[in-house]
Amino acid sequence: MQFVFQPLAWGFLLVLLPLLIHLINLVRHRRTQWAAMEFLLESYRKLRRWVWLKQALLIASRMLIVAIAVAMLAQWVSGSRWLAMISQSTTHHYVILDDSASMSDTSSKGTAYQSALGAVQSIAANANTQEGSHLLTVIRASRAALASAKSKVEKSTAADTKKTPTDPTSASAPAKSPEQQGPQADSVAELLSRTIPTDPSSLLSKINSTTQTSLDSGLGESIELISPLLQQASSEKSIVYLMSDFRSKDWSNPAMLKQQLQSLPTTNTELQLIDCVAERHENLTLVSVLPQQEVLAAGVPAMINISVRNNGIAPVRNVSVRVHSVDYGNRQIEPAPAAPFSGLITELPPVLIDRIEPGELVTRHVQVLFPKSGSHVVEAQLPSDSLNADNNARCVLDLQNGLRVLLIDGDSTGKHSFFFESALNPGGNAKTGLIMSREGPEFLRDADLAAIQNYACILMQAVPSLDPRALQNLHKYVSQGGGLGVFFGEQMSTADYLRYNSVWTKPIPSADNTIPLMPFSIKGASDLAQVAGDVKPDLIADNHPIFEPFFGLSNSPFQFVRIQRYLELEKELGDSKSADAKGNASGWKPVATLRNGKPIIIDHSIGNGRVLYGLTALDRQWTNWPQDPTFVVAALKMVGYLSSFRTPDAARIAGTPMRWDFSSQEMLPEIQVFCPPTVSNGAKSLLNVNAMPAGESAFQASLNAMSDQETDDSLRAVLAAGNFEWWGTSIQGERVVKNFARNTTPGEGETEKVQLIDLNRALSGVKFTYKSSESLGSNTALAGFANRNMLLMALLLLLLLFEQWLAWSASYHLPGRKT
Amino acid sequence: MPDSKEYLHPEAIRRIASMELRARNIVEGFLSGMHRSPYFGQSVEFVQHRQYVPGDDLRHIDWKVYGRQDKLYIKQYEEDTSLRCTLLLDASASMNYGRGSLNKFDYAATICACLAYLTLRQQDAVGLTVFDQKIRSRLPWRSSRSHLQSIFKSLQQTASKDKTDLTKVFREINDTYPKRSLMVIASDFLGSEAETLKGLAALKRAGHDILVFHVMDDDELDFPFNDPTRFEGMESTDALTCNPRALRDGYLESLQRFLDRVRHACASYQIDYQLIRTSRHMDATLTAYLTSRMAHMRKK
User: Fold this and answer.
1) What is the pLDDT of residue A362?
2) Average confidence (pLDDT) over A131-147
3) How far apart are CA B26 and CA B13, in angstroms?
4) CA B9 to chain centre
5) Which residues contact A384 (CB under 8 A, 6 or more apart)?
6) How many CB atoms lie within 10 A of CB A630?
7) Is B94 among the domain residues?
C-alpha cells in the first residue's frame, strides 16, 4: 500500500483502538449482586449469539471507520482499479519537452518552447483541481539524448576494456548490469516524481528557467528513459505528454519512435501529443558555411560555400546573406567578452540570391583572404524570420603559413615529380600556399608516423615497391585523415604490378582498419586505342571536387588531353561501398574515366582519409595531361581535396565535443573558453578548462557535453551554437586563440508540419490524443468536477450512520427518559 | 406546615431508624391527609353522635339530627374487632437488593410495620411471619398494643438471607393459621415461579383473603445498567459478565412475562396484587391495604 503522506500511515494503528477499548471495558467491569438472575440469564441465553454478532460487527465497523479516516488523511494510493474508486489515486504526469532548435519558432506568441512551458504550467494547474495526488516528471529531450550517447560511449569503452586481458583494473572491476549501464531518469530529469503542490510556481521555476537548445535531439531517448518508470509504477495512472513542434521530417515515418511508443505499457497509460506550433510558415535555412576542398593557407584566397535552403512553401526572391570574416591573425588581440568576436571583423559584400524555389538548396561562393596564419572565422547571416536558430552559420579556417606536401618519387633523380612540383609550386609571384618536399620511398619506411603526419598530403609517383613498414605507416596516415595520391611509372614492370596486387590489396596486419590500401588488382598496362573520327576526349571527368572548376562548362576542358597508355584492372570497376569486420566504412569509385569507359582516376576512402589512384604514368609516353593547363588546376584541387580530410573542424553541429591538442613546450595548460551568448542571458559564458597531459610533451584540452564534470550552466554553454573562442597562453606569455564553430543542425529549419491524418497513419497501433498547447489550459474549469474526496466522505458518513444504527440495535444507547 | 406526604417518601423513611417511629409517622401522616376517617367501620351497635368534621364520610351523617337542629352530626357505631391480619414478610437473600433509599427488605419490613400499627390502631388482631425458604419467626394474632412492640422488634432483628421456598412456607402457614384471615404478603417472589403460584393457590384455597405486595427495586424493573458489569446471583452461584445494554431488552421482556404471569395468577385466584417499587411513596401501599381490609370486612 502506498500513501501520499506516508508518515500518516502509522495512524492505521488507531484501528486497534475500538478493539482495545472494548477489551478494557470488559476488564474494567464492575461487580454487582443481582437478585433477578433468572431473567438475566434467560435473556443472555436467548440473545447470546445475536449480541456477539452485533458486537463483532460494531467493533469491525468502528475499526473500518478509523481505517477509512486514516486512509483519507494519508491519501491512500491504490493500484487496483476497484480499490482506486475509494482510495486516492495517483496520476503521474510524464512531460517530455522537445528542446531542439526548431522549438525556437516564434510564429505564435513567444517561442514554441515557451508554449511548451506554458503547457506544463497548465498541467500543474489542472492537477491541483483534480482529485488524487499528482506527480510530475519533466525530461528535456536534449538531456536524455546526451545521457543516452554518454551511456553508449561508456558501454563501448567498457567493452574495449574488457577485451584487454592485461588490464588488471578491468578484471577486478565488477561488471555492471544493463540497467546500471543505461542512463537513469534521476540523473537526467529536470523534475522526477515530484508532488505537485498547490502553488506549483516554485516547483516549475527550474524548468521555466530553461530554454531551447541548438541541438536536433529526438524524443526517442526520452521515451526510452521513462519506459522503465512506467513499467515500475504500474499501480498509478500515467499520462505521457510529448511536447514538440511535430515536423514532418521527424513524424512522417517515425518507425523507431513508433516502436518505442508501442513498448510503453498500455494499461493506465495515456499518451498525449502536445503541438506547440500552430502552423507551418516561411523559413530560410542557412544550411552550411564551409570552405571548399582546396588548399587553405594564409595569404591564399579561400572560397567559402554558403548554402541556403528554402524550407517554406513559396518561392523567395532577393535573399541577401550577410557575410563577415573575423581575422585572428594579429598577435596583439586580446579576448573581448563583450564583443561578438575578439578578432577583427570585416563585413564582406552580401551574397545575393535572386530566387529560391521551395525546397531548393542554393549554394554561392564567397572569397575570403586572411593574410596571416591563425584561427579565422567566416560567418553568414540570413535576414530574421520566425525561426532564427537556422539563420546563422559559421566556419573556422585554421590557416598555416603554408601547406606541406610530400612527394615520394620512385626515381632518385625526382624526374617523376617534376610535373607536380611545377604545378604546385610554380614560383614567382604565383603563391599557392604549398611547401613541397621530395623524398625517396625509404622515407616512408624510416620516418615515424608523427613526421609523416606533418604533411597535408602525400603524392607518390612511380614507386615500384614499398617496404611493409612503409605500407603500414601509409595505411595509418590515411586512416587518420591523411590524403595519398598514387601515380604509376612508365618503367614499372608487370612484376611491380603483381607486387602491388599481392601487397597493397591485403589488409595491413596489426592495423585497426582492415580495409586495404588498394581495393582493386592491376591487370597490366594497356594502350588506349585511337579511333578515327571519335570526338570524345580521352579523359572524361566525373562530378568530383578535384574537377570542380570544370563543372558546368559547355565543352570538355580535356579536349587536348591524350592518354596513350593506362593500367587496366582485373575486373570491371563500379561504385562500391563496403565495410570491414570492424565496421570501418570503405568506398571507392572512379572519378575520371577514359574514352573506353575504363577508370583512369579512382577515389578510395580508408578511415578518415582518401587515396586517389591515377592509373597512368605522368610521362609523355603515356599521357600529355601534365602538359595541359587543366593538370595544374586538377593538381591544386587534388592537393586541396586530399589535405581537406585532416583539416581541423571547420564547422560542426552544436553539441559536438571540442578538443585542442597542443604542445606542452609551447603553451600553458590553462585555457579560457568564451562560449557564444545563450538565449537566456545574452552574454558570453566563460569556462575555464585545464588541459590534461596527453602523451609526451603534449596537452589536450577538451569540452564535452557528455563529461561528468559539466555543470548545468557549462552544459548550457557547451550546447549552444556559435563560435567558441579558446584562449591559451604561450610559454612566452602571448595569447593564442583557437576557434571552434558550432552550428544549428540544418534539418531543424524544415518547418513542414505533419498532418494529423499522416500522424495517425504513421503511429497506427499507438493510442494517443493530439492537441495544441493552448487547448491544454482550457480544461481547468471542467476539472475537479468529480471530487473523489466527496465520495469518500459520503462513504464515511454512511459507515458512521451504520455504526450508530448497529449500536442502537445492539442496545448500546440509553433509552429516553420518560417523564 | 410541611406536607404530610413528605413523611411517606422512602428517603424520609430511611432516616428514621426506629421501626415504631417509622410506622407511626407514616400511618399518622397518611391518615391526616385522608378525607375519610378510616378509624371506624360499619357496625350494627350505635355508640354516639359526633359533630361532623371535614373528611368524615358523608354517608355517616345523621340527616334526621340535621333536620331537627340544622347541624351536621356523624353517627358512630361500636367497631367490629373480628379482623385478623397476618403479615407475611419475605426475608430471603434476594430481598436484600436495593441501591435506592431502602432496599426491598427494608421497604417490605416498613410496610409490615405500618400495617401492624394501623391494624392495632383499629383494635384488630395482627400476626407476623418472617420467612425465607422456611419460616424463620412467627408472632401469633394479638390485638393488644404491647403486641406492636413485639412485631417491631421482630422486624428490626430480622436480616434477609437464604433462598425462597414459598410452597413450603405457605403450607406451614396454612397449618399455623387455620382460621380465615387477611394475609398480607410482602415479597419479591424471586424464586421458583411455579412454586410461588402454587403456594398462593394453596393459601387461597384455605379461604384467606390475600393481599400481595410484590416489592421490586427500580433497578430490577428498569435495568438501567450501562457499563460492563458482572452480575452475581444473590440466591444462587450464577454469575454473568456482560454488557447490560445488550441484554436489557431481553431481560425486561422476561421480567415482564413473569410479572404478567404473577398478576394473572393473582387475578384468577382473586388475590389483590400490588406491584410496589421501592422508590414509591408508602401511601399507595396503605391505600391498597385499607381497600382490601374494607373488602374483607364486607365479606364478613
Assistant:
1) 93
2) 84
3) 8
4) 16
5) A391
6) 19
7) yes
> Domain A284-400+651-749 is classified in which CATH homologous superfamily?
Immunoglobulins (2.60.40.10)
With respect to CATH, is domain A403-646 assigned 2.60.120.260? no
- Full strand arrangement of the beta sheet holding A735-743: A652-653, A735-743, A722-729, A670-675, A685-690
CA distance linking residue B127 with residue B135, whole number of Å: 13
Task: Tell me if B97 and A25 make a contact (CB, 8 A cut-off).
Answer: no
Q: Do A39 and B217 make contact, defined as CB atoms within 8 angstroms?
A: no
Q: How far apart are the first and last CA of chain B?
A: 40
| Residue A709: per-residue pLDDT | 64
Interface contact B188-A35, CB threshold 8 A: yes
Report the C-alpha gap between A37 and B190 in whole angstroms.
9
**Interface TM-score (ipTM) > 0.85:** no
Tens digits of residue pLDDT in B254-300? 999 999 999 999 989 888 888 888 888 777 777 777 777 677 666 55
Please check whether residue B233 touches A, CB under 8 A.
yes
pLDDT in tens, B96-126: 898 877 889 988 988 888 888 888 877 778 8
Inform me whether the C-beta atom of residue B228 falls under 8 Å from chain A C-beta atoms.
Answer: yes
What pLDDT, on the 0 to 100 scale, is given for residue B257?
A: 93
Alpha carbon separation from A326 to A394, A539, B162 (Å, rounded): 10, 41, 126
Q: Which residue has the higher pLDDT, A510 or A25?
A: A25
Chain A residues near any Cβ of chain B (below 8 Å): 25-26, 28-44, 46-47, 51, 54-55, 810-814
Domain boundaries, chain A: 85-164+176-280+752-786, 284-400+651-749, 403-646
CB contact under 8 A, A25 and B228: yes
- Residue A194 confidence (pLDDT) above 70: yes
Given an 8 Å threshold on Cβ–Cβ distance, is B231 in contact with A37? yes
The answer to whether A44 contacts B249, with C-beta atoms less than 8 Å apart, is no
Same domain, B70 and B88: no
Tell me the pLDDT band of A284, cut-offs 50, 70 and 90.
very high
Q: B235 touching A, CB under 8 A?
A: yes
What percentage of chain A carries pLDDT values higher than 90? 20
Interface test with A, best of B163, B245, B261, B275 (most A CBs within 10 A): B245
Is B232 part of the contact surface with chain A (CB cutoff 8 Å)? yes
Q: What pLDDT, on a 0 to 100 scale, did the predictor assign at position A86?
A: 58
DSSP E strand boundaries for chain B: 46-51, 73-77, 84-90, 125-131, 135-142, 182-187, 209-216, 229-233, 239-242, 272-277
How many whole angstroms separate alpha carbon A432 and alpha carbon A640? 11
Q: Model's pTM, two decimal places?
A: 0.60
Residue from B206, B172, B169 nearest B186 by CA: B169
Among A135-149, A416-430, B69-83, the least confident range: B69-83
In this complex, which of A26, A37, A38 lies closest to B228 when CB atoms are compared? A26
Average pLDDT over residues B192-196: 83
Considering the four listed CATH numbers 3.40.50.170, 2.40.160.20, 3.40.50.300, 3.40.50.410, the one that applies to the domain covering A85-164+176-280+752-786 is 3.40.50.410
Q: Is residue B9 part of a domain?
A: no
- Euclidean distance between CA atoms A440 and A454, whole angstroms: 17
d(CA A202, CA A208): 10
Q: Tell me the chain B residues in contact with residue A43 when contact means C-beta distances shorter than 8 Å.
A: 247-251, 253-254
**Please, what is the average pLDDT of chain A?**
83
Residue B60 and residue B162 in one domain? no
Q: Which of A25, A33, A51 sits opposite B234 (nearest CB)?
A: A33
* pLDDT of residue B19 exceeding 90: no
- More confident of the two residues B36 and B9: B9
pLDDT, greater one: A557 or B280: A557
- Which residues of chain B neighbour A814 with C-beta distances below 8 Å? 226, 245
d(CA B30, CA A565): 162
- Residues in B closer than 8 angstroms to A42, CB to CB, are 250-251, 254
